[in-house]
C-alpha cells in the first residue's frame, strides 16, 4: 500500500475555527450587559465550538511512520524529528507540550493542527480476579470497551476495533446495539496507551477480540498491527498479537498474504453449519468448511497455529456427539481449541455448560490428538464478555 498517497493534510479550517473561538471568549469577557444565564449559554457554545475545532485536528497516532515523516516535512522537519516524535507518541504523555526535546516553536505549530490523545476514561471496573474493564468515551460521544487480563505470561489487553458490530452473533452483547463506525488505527492504539497509563505497567500481549469484527475494518487493523510492532513505539512482537474473527474468509486469506505472522483466532462455537448459522448469521455466507480451508491456507503461509474459540452453551453445542463432529472437522490441523465457559447475557437464551460436560468434551478432543483448554472464566462479576458493559451503560443512559 502506498501510505504517502493517503497522507492527510493539516486542517487549515480547524486553525481558523480555533482562532475564532479566542475572539468569542474576548467578546464574552467584554460584554458587561449580558445576564449570567446568557453568558453561560454563550460559554457553552464556545466550549462546543472549541471541541469541534479540537476534533478536526489530526490525531498523530493515526499516522504511519511514513505519513508522519511526510506530515513533518510540511514543516521543514528532518527525519530525526520523526523518530523523536514517534518515540514521544507512545510514551505516557497527554500533551504535545510534554515532548521536551522538541523545539517550542515546532510544538506550538503542531498543537495548532494536531493532537495526540482523544480518549476520556469514563468508567473502570475491577473484577475480583483482577480483570479490569475500561470504558472509553470517544470524540463523537461513542463508547468503546477494552479489557485488561492478567496471565502467567504477563498482561494482555483485549481491544475493540469498531463501535458496534454488523455481524449479529446471537450470544454477543455488542450485536444487539448495531454498528456505528470503524475505529481508526490511532483509536485502536490509544486503548493500549490509555490502559498502560492507568495501570502503570507494560502490556505485552494484544488480542483484537473486543467490540467489532477486525476484518470488517481491515485497513485500519493492518495499519495498527504494523504500527504497534515498530521498535521506536510499543515494540509488541507480532507473535504476541492475536486477531480474532467470526469467519470472514476473504479477510483470513488477505491476512495470510500480508507477511505479518500474527496469531489467528477463529470463533467457531458449533460443529455443524446448521447450529453455527443459528448462532452466527455470517455462517450462511462462509460455511465451516470454507473457513477451515482458509485457516489451513493461513497456517501454511504463516506457520502459525490456529486457535478455535468454542463457547460452551449448555444443551446446544456441548454434547459428546458435538465433540465428535468437531473432531471430524479439524483433526490433523495445526490448531488448539479454547473451550469457553459462556457468560450468560441478559435477554439471550443460552446458558453456560456444566463443568462435567466441558471436561468430557475436552477429553474427546484430546483423545483424538487435538489440544484443548478450558478457559478460566474471567471478569464475570464485571460483565467482561464482549460488549456486555457497553451495552449495560448505553441501556442505562437510554432508560434515564
Ligand atoms: S462476537 Fe464479535 S463478530 Fe460477533 S457480533 Fe460480537 S463483536 Fe461482532
Give a description of the structure:
By secondary structure, this protein is an alpha/beta fold. It has helices spanning 12-30, 36-55, 65-73, 79-89, 104-113, 185-199, 218-228, 249-256, 273-279, 288-302, 320-330, 355-367, 388-399, and strands spanning 58-59, 114-115, 120-126, 132-137, 143-151, 154-158, 162-164, 179-182, 205-208, 241-245, 263-267, 306-312, 335-341, 371-374. The strands form 3 sheets. It has a 10-stranded mixed β-sheet with strand order 3-4-5-6-9-10-11-12-13-14, with helices on both faces. A hairpin with a 5-residue loop joins strand 3 (120-126) and strand 4. Helix 3 (65-73) crosses helix 4. The protein is globular, with a radius of gyration of 24 Å. Mean pLDDT is 85; it is low at 1-32. The site of iron/sulfur cluster has 12 residues, from loops.
Strand and helix map with partners:
Elements: H1 12-30, H2 36-55, E1 58-59, H3 65-73, H4 79-89, H5 104-113, E2 114-115, E3 120-126, E4 132-137, E5 143-151, E6 154-158, E7 162-164, E8 179-182, H6 185-199, E9 205-208, H7 218-228, E10 241-245, H8 249-256, E11 263-267, H9 273-279, H10 288-302, E12 306-312, H11 320-330, E13 335-341, H12 355-367, E14 371-374, H13 388-399
Parallel strand pairs: 1-2, 6-9, 9-10, 10-11, 11-12, 12-13, 13-14
Antiparallel strand pairs: 3-4, 4-5, 5-6, 7-8
Bound molecules: iron/sulfur cluster.
Mean pLDDT comes to: 85
The radius of gyration over CA amounts to: 24 Å
SSE sequence, one letter per element: HHEHHHEEEEEEEHEHEHEHHEHEHEH
Largest sheet: 10 strands, mixed
Spatial order of the strands forming the largest sheet: 3-4-5-6-9-10-11-12-13-14
Ligands bound to this protein structure: iron/sulfur cluster
- Distance between the ends: 47 Å
* Oligomeric composition of the shown chains: single chain
